[in-house]
Amino acid sequence: NAGVTQTPKFQVLKTGQSMTLQCAQDMNHNSMYWYRQDPGMGLRLIYYSASEGTTDKGEVPNGYNVSRLNKREFSLRLESAAPSQTSVYFCASNPGQGAVGANVLTFGAGSRLTVL
Amino acid sequence: EDQVTQSPEALRLQEGESSSLNCSYTVSGLRGLFWYRQDPGKGPEFLFTLYSAGEEKEKERLKATLTKKESFLHITAPKPEDSATYLCAVLDYGGSQGNLIFGKGTKLSVKP
Fold this sequence. Notes:
Helix content of chain A: under 10%
Distance between the termini of chain A: 36 Å
Structural class of chain A: mainly beta
Number of helices of chain A: 0
Order of helices and strands of chain A: EEEEEEEEEEE
Largest sheet of chain A: 7 strands, mixed
Order of helices and strands of chain B: EEEEEEEEEEE
Number of strands of chain A: 11
Oligomer: heterodimer
Largest sheet of chain B: 6 strands, mixed
Shape of chain B: globular
Largest interface: A-B, 27 and 22 residues
Number of strands of chain B: 11
């Protein structure tokens, strides 16, 4: 099993450009998450989707939008990139409420984004 | 406000030199405490979940313990392949489903 797959792995943008990070999981998980990881800051939640058809803001949602395309896929969009959005982005999933291992996150390998 | 503090920030050990990593937390009600391992350039990998004070879990050279205020990750006779950043995270009863609060991590280096 591939687990959680993120694309692209690396991306360089200019300020003001837009882009979408893609994430797909093949574990039939209900819940999916987008985190960013910055040096000295730890992992911070951007947006999450507790189940197909729902999305909610996390700790740092400003400047981002998300789409839960179907049960497998959860994308993160930067509409107008800013240098402050330079970071490593991780997608994660878990089985969701009521399931075995409900809160154990499985992470993707990450997408390193640089905004110039 | 929920808080998770990990110490030390970095730890350098000689192969075979046992030690412990600390994770102290402040939550209104603990639903679970999670330990992850993160290798450079990769996503975090799940190690353990602890749910109540007094609980312990082991995996190879790692043993995680939990009290009402903190968790320890004990590393016995570490090997160079144990070098990684270890992340601690908590899930609060007051938090939304699955929204873990992560600490900043402890970077462990084990020298042969």
